[in-house]
Amino acid sequence: MTTEEKGSVLKTKLGLENLKGLGDTLKQIKEVNESLVEAQKTVSELAKDNSPLGRALARLVEAQGLKTLNEDNINVSEEVRKTMAEELKNRGKTIEELQAENTGLKEDKVVSEVTSK
After folding, report:
1. CA distance 63 to 67
2. How far apart are CA 78 and CA 72, in angstroms?
3. Which of 8, 19, 46, 72 gets the most CB atoms within 10 Å of its CB?
4. What are the Cα distances from residue 6, in Å, to 1, 14, 15, 16, 84?
5. Average pLDDT of span 39-46
6. Nearest alpha-carbon partner for 3 in 18, 16, 19, 11
């Protein structure tokens, strides 16, 4: 068998392996699709029948949504609290700086009055 023939056989084998892998992938996709269709049918029947299970699932979904909203509100509240605390701290520093500057100006005024007399 020549090198060319060996290469051709190898390519054929690789092609068959790729086709086999593709076939397996297609089978898996088909199985997943069938499961999805079955789940959609079940949900549709539950919704259509307005069954207790369907209502329970709807309440569960709603509760989960409310829980998420509540968690988001808590996170936002914490961020606002932190921001306000930092702003108060910065304002406190600003007030202290202004008081120090005011004291310095008063002292300068007293010194200038004393020296001008």
Report:
1. 6
2. 10
3. 46
4. 7, 12, 14, 15, 76
5. 73
6. 11
